[in-house]
Design goal:
Elements (H helix, E strand, L loop, with lengths): L1 E9 L5 H17 L5 E6 L10 E7 L2 H9 L1 H8 L5 E10 L1
Antiparallel strand pairs: 1-3, 1-4, 2-3
Length: 96
């Protein structure tokens, strides 16, 4: 199994609606992309200088499935749309 972890920092000017659109798009991956085996996400409830605003953890069968997810229409639509509210991300994929 491959786990994909993403930490998101929104642009300072990102509106509540834009933040909600990011979450909605990310949550939809588990329905729209068959390669996604499990997905959880949520907004940061803490605070600190190194904290991010939002996180996602998704599991895939393997690296090939992850690559199909990245190339999927749902993920590409997210990148071209809601992700425009994102200033930066930190991401990692690891086997588990």
């Amino acid at each position: 199994m491959l786990r994909h972890i993403v930490l998101v920092t929104f642009k300072p000017e990102a509106t509540a609606e834009q933040r909600a659109a990011v979450r909605s798009a990310v949550e939809s991956f588990s329905v729209q992309v068959p390669e996604v085996r499990s997905l959880v996400c949520g907004e940061n409830v803490g605070s600190g200088p190194n904290h991010h605003d939002f996180a996602m953890v998704a599991d895939f069968d393997d690296l090939a499935a992850f690559r199909r997810y990245i190339a999927s229409p749902a993920h590409q639509a997210y990148v071209q749309g809601p992700a425009k509210a994102v200033a930066k991300i930190a991401a990692i994929q690891h086997e588990c």
